[in-house]
Amino acid sequence: MMTGWIAVIGGAAGTVALFLAATALYRRTRLFLLHPVLVTITTIILLLLIAGIPYEQYNRGGRLISLFLEPAVVALGLPLYRQWPAIRRQARAILMALVIGSIAGIVTAAGLALALAATPEVVLSLAPRSVTAPIAIGISEATGGVPALAAAVAIASGILGAIIGPPLLRIAGIRSPTAFGLALGAASHGIGTARALEEGEAEGAAAGLSIALMGAVTAALLPLIVAGLFALFALPG
Amino acid sequence: MPRIASYALSLLVLLAFLGIGRLISTLFGLPIPGSVIGMILLAVALGAGIVRERWVAATSELLLRYLALLFVPPGVGLMLYFGLLQEAWVAIGVSVVVSTIVVLLLVGSVHQRLEKQ
User: Among residues B95, B101, B81, B79, which one has the least CA distance to residue A160?
Assistant: First the structure.
């Protein structure tokens, strides 16, 4: 099928071309709201909606790109190794920050949803917001959330954190490269890590480590914390 | 080593670690995906000298330079969940925005404070 192949190549090449154009625009303007990931995703969604093309058809080409996502996560082992001496020296501070961050992430995400009277399925899909999408899917499956919603929420958090994260951290006076990377990795996972790598290798390595540790700590603590929150909100009055 | 060969070799090494990571994740029924386990194992193998940096550098550096691009197709996939997100958009919106900001600032400031001590 000749036309099928053209659509596949077109989807992939179009995505790359749009991303490169968005990156050039971002470099020129330096406006944080024009983050290339946000601009490219929004443009493609609008184009697909206008042209009436279903996501599945676009993704036959898109898959050629996201295929490299998993090898890229493995590749984060390289900056992690290169930055290991610095990371090892700060092991205690890193663990403390991420355990506190993991608990705060679960409590704020699930607690606010409960306070706003969301259904249990929605609460359980929001609770693993601070972990990367594939881990969020696994956790929500185990606890009774909606895996697709958990993945959507994790990706949306990734985009949001990558955009507002760097300016927010600068305003808050966070200058340590490790703290910067850990925060971006914890709040916005893979997309945040990509953003952290733009700052430097120390930031990128910390962000990659943050994804792994946040995933492990959150998977371990989440069931207990969420059960506690449900009990608290079930109390009368 | 010719450039094409160093890209091929480094891609193979990454895929091997991805495979091992997936195997461990499945065998032990871990909630952590194979790619994340592969990342930790790659760092350990580099540290132990089992894998040399130049065996993985070419493809790793290429993929990490364009990491953000790789998230575009799954990000476009958000359009599949517009209906689902719309059903409880206030709760979802508030929860995502507040929780993202809290985690960012808390992790950053706690680490920076402890690091200084």
Answer: B101
